[in-house]
């Protein structure tokens, strides 16, 4: 079963993001994604990679 963001209400999206942030899962997901990119397992453009790094830093340093 595949659920995309299009099928979630704004309240459900906010709740999910809150849970991910509260439990440090968002940081773990970002770290894994960045590692996959850096190891060549995933391809993204430079802009997307920089956005992931920025988001990782914001969550790690500003929200803890």
TrEMBL record:
Gene3D superfamilies: 1.10.287.3030
Source species taxonomy: Bacteria, Bacillati, Bacillota, Bacilli, Bacillales
InterPro entries in the record: Antirep_AbbA (IPR025446)
Top-level taxon of the source organism: Bacteria
Protein name: Antirepressor AbbA
């Amino acid at each position: 079963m595949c659920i995309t963001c299009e099928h979630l209400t704004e309240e459900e999206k906010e709740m999910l993001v809150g849970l991910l942030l509260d439990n440090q899962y968002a940081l773990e997901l970002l770290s894994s994604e960045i590692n996959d990119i850096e190891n060549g397992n995933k391809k993204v453009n430079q802009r997307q990679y920089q956005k992931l790094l920025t988001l990782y830093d914001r969550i790690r340093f500003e929200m803890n």
